[in-house]
Design brief:
Helix content is 0%, strand content 52%. By secondary structure, it is mostly beta strands. It has one domain (6-123): Jelly Rolls. β1 (10-14) and β2 (17-23) form a beta hairpin. The chain is globular.
């Protein structure tokens, strides 16, 4: 039985946020990826369009999440469903780090406004 201990999780940092990967092909998952996201206060991630559905659950803090131009204030306990092809932007206007749990299928890519394509290692 694959068990990933916190000490075995792999941490990645990009655009001011931390992504702590628990489930991915590197840890034995065949179809799904899951990670803990940490978005520090004052962080504004660039808008990006995702290729796969993501389920974003906020564990702690508060975020402004914009999906296809519509902004919602998301607080601890809220879950956001992000469909493939959606353009997503995340901002932490609060005074403490927001913590999330995100799940998607293997192979997620994100296209930035400038055309750059990211293949995040925590989702591949």
């Amino acid at each position: 039985m694959p068990v990933v201990r916190p000490s075995e999780a792999v941490t990645h940092e990009i655009h001011g946020a931390r992504f702590i990967s628990y489930a991915s092909p590197l840890t034995g998952s065949r179809e799904l990826c899951a990670w803990r996201g940490e978005i520090p206060a004052g962080t504004r991630a660039p808008a990006h369009t995702v290729t796969h559905e993501e389920i974003f659950h906020l564990l702690d803090g508060e975020l402004l999440m914009t999906l296809d131009g519509r902004t919602e204030r998301v607080t601890a306990g809220d879950t956001v469903i992000i469909n493939p092809g959606t353009t997503l932007a995340v901002e932490n206007p609060g005074d403490r780090t927001a913590v999330s749990w995100v799940t998607t299928s293997v192979g997620l890519r994100a296209r930035l406004a400038d055309g750059t394509v990211l293949t995040p290692p925590w989702a591949n």
